[in-house]
Structure formats: structure tokens, C-alpha cells
Amino acid sequence: MPRPEREGDRRTGTVVLGRAGADEAAVAAAEERLGRRLPPSYRQFLSVSDGWYVDQMAGVYRLGGVADIDWFGDPYGMTPMYERDLGADPSPEETLLAGMWRRALRLETDSDMTYALLDPGDRDEDGEWALYVYKGWSGEFPDRYPSFRAYMEAMYRHFHATRAERADFVNATTREQDARVERARLLALRGRHEEAVPLLEEASGFGRPHSAVLLNQVRHFLAPHRSRGYGGLVAEPGCLPEVLPVEAMERARDARRPGGDDHWLGMMAARGVARETAEAVLGALRDGSHRYAPQGAWGRAVAEALESARWGAGDAAWRVLREALPRWEQPGPGLIVPLGLLADPVLGPLVTPERGREVLATPRAGQRGPAPDPAPDLDPPGLGWLAEPAAHRASLGSGYRGVWVEGVDPARLPGLIGEEGAVLSSPVRPFDMSRLAVGVHGREDVEPWEDRAVASVGRSGPWAFAFDGYGHSRFGPRFRSPAAAASAGGRAVVVWCDRGPGDPEGPPVAFHLSVAERSTELYAFTVRGTETERSGAIPEALDPDRLFGPGADGVGGERRALDALYGELGLALPRFALTRGRLPAFTTRSWTRAPREGERFAHLSFTRTRR
Q: How many angstroms separate the CA atoms of 582 and 572, rounded?
């Protein structure tokens, strides 16, 4: 049980927060009056301090002594309200809370409509009673503490936390907690974050400077896609380029809330960030142009990793970062991780929880310690994952199509198969690709018969690829393979798997392959159910009769075809980049030809309106 603290005051001198303890006879007399033996930690408290006086203790100003405590008696009729909300099958916790109001012992004698209630009906094996704090003005459920001791320890921490900003508030507790913060900081840099976390959690409860900021950095890498706050760290020397983009990430995702930018910019200004600087970072995050660019050996590794990751080679990029991580240097003493990595549109998504733990477990910034086991790679080889259940193809639609061109830079693909004026975009999230695909067909310059794809661009081995797994186009009789046009820059392969509008897990209604070189189609086949169209000299390994022949179900045939394309031609796709990362994109030419004279086609469009 915390001893009564003394709080210094320059004007009034020292104020004692507790009172002299009650003797055993006084406690026993109170128990006789109440008809119950008090719980152990509360009895111990009364023997140390017969009541408690404090300016504010989370809504409670004074706790009474043995002469003041009495049964609450539910004077405000809370029991019927809570009983009405129990429902047909209430939990034990809900039942206890509903009955607490009539049987609880009231402890406070001065408060802001806040009640400290000990419940004899909510007991543990040690005889402790749960303590509920109910803020009558809040409309919320009471806060529950497992015992009076747990409540007083929480209030002890609260007492220190509310005074943590005062330079004159120093005592044995503050010195001890500050030492814990420094020890935790060094442990974290040595890769021993699991030892650092409980130290930081305790110090944060006491409101000690830097504890919450350090703890949030660890938690952010354990759960990389949950936002965290970093307070004044953004204003510390050297920290702004790392911290400001991370602080801006959530705001950048939420562009629709009116006045939200002004509020956020005002918060940054209050932390010492110039408005134009904050606006520039926010804009770069929104348009995908922001890049993490630290200094030194770590910065050179980041640049190298970015070149791999921008075309989809996430596992290779992570290996570069992993090797360089021990050479990361702190831009400022308040940073214990390369925080800015999380805000990079291309590299940030690579930091999965497993990789975040790997970062935290790696000694860095000149500290020593054992290296952790490397996190496993995320991309399976080949194309077979496209035939797996939808859960493994998150963010993709049911069907897919792609173009692979051998030996060319991915940046050349818009010139080979792109619509007029096509250029590569900034990296695009998979979530946004479907919206972009739909938007193309609403443009005035796109004919109703056209089927232009919005394709993600990357590189896999010697092949540059343009992949569309987000649209909802159907393989039809006017299909025009882009293989010949793409092969002007090298051998080109086109694959289209159309599963139709029905079962996304079912067999494809059409599977097409075409291969071209030097602007000439070499061979092709299209499988629809039991019918196969073929042309050219198809290699035995890719023979559609062998892949989709009698006795082979459709899903199995698709998987065999994808595996054969990997084995025969080396075709592959980076699953992580396409489903969870970011890749640049462009709009292709139409995959369907114009209707010939006498041919008919139908075009349907749907517009969603609010009722």
C-alpha cells in the first residue's frame, strides 16, 4: 500500500495527504456498525491513514475514515436501470454490476458527483472486494478495480501523472521511474524490447517524460498498421523527418472530414511544426510521392530496398533492410526505431507484425546483442497462388489477366500497351484499383465497346508485368490479345483467367494463353469448358489438352496451367505487393476490338444514387 505522500507547495508549505491511522478498536467498531468485516487491503489502509485528503483523485477529492463510511443504499435508483439491461443471458460480470448499487459500501465524502463503492458481493479468493468508481455526470459504466489496493495504486500513479510536468515535483518514486525509462530505452536499442515494455508501461502510468513516446514506438512496430501518437517528439532536433510523416498517415487517409486538415495542422503548429512543412508532408502522403530518405548507411540501404520494392520485390527489399538495420543511427535520442519507415508508401506495407518484431529484436544504434531469427519471406514462387482460395488473394477479384514482357524495364510498358498518353502513376493501394478500373469506363473518350484495364506494374525475374486482378471484365469473342504489341520490346506472354460472375472459387469459364515475339504471335490457346481453340506450335509442357484434358477438373486445370507457366517460362507474380502493398499503375489499350459491320453488342451501365 503506498504510504501517504507529501506534496511541496511554495506558498503554503508541505501538505500531508493522509491522516493518522485508526487503531484496531476503531476499525472493529466500524465493522460492528456496518455488520461486515472490511476487506483486507482496506483494513490495512485505515490502519495507515484514517481517510485521505487530496486536491483531486480522478474525481474523488476525499475518502472518509472509519467514522464516515456507510452503505450506499442506491439513492438514485440505479439497480432497476441496470437490471432492465441484463437481457435473457447476462454474463456474471453484468449480474454483479446490476446488484452492486444496493449492497455497496460508499467511501468518498467529497467529490464531483463521483462515487467510490466497495462491493462485498464481488469478492476474490483473498477476501478482497471489488471497488467501482462511478462518475455520475458521465453516463458511462463504472470503472472496476479488483480491490481497494488496486484502486489506491492506480490513484497513486494518477497523482504522479497529473504532476509530471512540474519541475519541482521530484521524489523517490519519480527518480525510480525515470531510471526505469532510461533502462528501457537501452534495452529496446539492444533488441530486448520484451524486457523494456513492462518498464515503460509502469513509468507511463506515472506520467514520466518520454515513457509513452518510447512505448508507442515499440507498440507501433508490433502492430504496424495501427496509428500512434508521438506528442512533442516531432519537435525534437533531427526527429521531424521521421515523426511528422507517421503522425500524418491517419490524417492523409481521412481526407473527407470537413475541417480535419485545419485541426491537424493546428495540432502540429502547437508542437512547433511550420504549417507549410506539415501541408507538404500531408500532400505527399496523399498523392503517394512521399519517400523515406534517412542519412548514412541506413539511408543507402533504404534507397536500394526502395528500388526493389517499387517493382514488387518485397522480400528482396526486406533482406536489404534486415542486413542494414544494425547500422541504423538515432536521428535524435527520443527515437529507438526507424519510425519513418512506416510512412513510406512502398516500404511501409512491408513491415508486417512479424517483421516489426524482427526490427525490435535487432540490436541497433551501436548497441550489441544477438541477432533475431529472420522473419519468413511472404511471396510464394510462381503463379499458383492465383488459383488458391480467395482468402489468399485478398484485394483481388475472382478473375485476373496479365501481360509479361521479357527483358524490358517495367517503365516501358505504358509505351508498349498503354492507351494514348499513358504514364505510370504513383504507387497505388490494391483497395483503390477497383475504383480506378470502374472510373476508366465512365470517361467520355472511352468507347462503350472498349475494355481498357488498369494494370499494376512490376518486375519478376527477367519479366516486366502489367497485371489486372481488380476489374470485372469478361473474356468474350472480340478479345484482342496485347501479346503482339507488347513483344515489340521482347518476348511477351498474355494470360487471362475469367471465372465469370458466379462462384469466385469455382473453375474458370475461360482460360487464355498467348505468346508472341518480335510483334508476331507464336502460339495461343483458349479453353472454355470442354472446348479448346488453339493456334501455332504450343510446347508440350503448355499443351491445353494435357493441362485441361478429360478427367481434370477446371480448378485443377487452372493450377496446372499456372504451375506450367512458371516451370516453362519462369512467370511469377509478387502476391504481397499485389494484395497488400503498392505498385504503380497505368491504363492499357482496349483488350477487345471494335465491332465489325453487322456485329451487335450490348453495353450496360449502372449508377448508384442515394434514396
A: 17
- pTM here is 0.85
Q: Is 526 helix (H, G, I), strand (E, B) or coil?
A: strand
DSSP code, position 418: B
What beta strand segments (E) does 291-422 contain?
400-406
Return d(Cα 437, Cα 52) in angstroms, integer: 67
Q: Considering only CA atoms, which of 577, 593, 558 is closest in space to residue 398?
A: 558
Task: Name the residue among 242, 294, 230, 226 with its Cα closest to residue 268.
Answer: 230
Give dist(CA 155, CA 206) in Å, integer: 10
**Does the pLDDT at position 403 exceed 90?**
yes
Q: Compute the distance between CA of residue 481 and CA of residue 495 in angstroms, rounded to an integer.
A: 9
Which is nearest to 45 in space by CA: 14, 72, 17, 71? 17
**What backbone phi and psi angles, to 5 degrees, belong to 497?**
-115, 115
Task: Kindly report the length of the chain.
Answer: 611
pLDDT value at residue 290: 95
End-to-end CA, the chain: 62
| Cα angle 485, 486, 487; round to 5 | 95
CA distances (Å), origin 537, targets 405, 496, 510, 522, 527: 20, 19, 21, 7, 16
Taking the C-alpha atoms of residue 170 and residue 353, their distance in angstroms, rounded to an integer, is 38
Q: Say how far apart CA 523 and CA 515 lie, in whole Å.
A: 6
**For residues 300 and 561, what is the distance between their CA atoms, to the nearest angstrom?**
41
Phi, psi of 475 (to 5 degrees): -75, 120
**Which helix (H) or strand (E) element contains residue 280?**
helix 275-287
- In the numeric block, which cell numbers belong to residue 470? 481488380
Give the model confidence (pLDDT) of 420-431 as tens digits.
999 999 999 888
With beta carbons less than 8 A apart as the criterion, state whether 558 and 497 touch.
Answer: yes
**Alpha carbons 362 and 322: distance in angstroms, whole number:** 9
pLDDT in tens, 181-235: 999 999 999 999 999 999 999 999 999 999 999 999 999 999 998 889 998 999 9
Q: What are phi and psi of 122, to 5 degrees?
A: -115, 85
**Does residue 296 contact residue 243 with C-beta atoms inside 8 Å?**
no
pLDDT at residue 342, as a whole number: 97
Question: 526: which 3 cell numbers?
Answer: 483458349
Beginning with the edge strand found earlier in the chain, give each strand of the sheet holding 114-123 in spatial order: 70-71, 105-106, 114-123, 129-135, 143-145
Cell numbers given for 439: 472510373
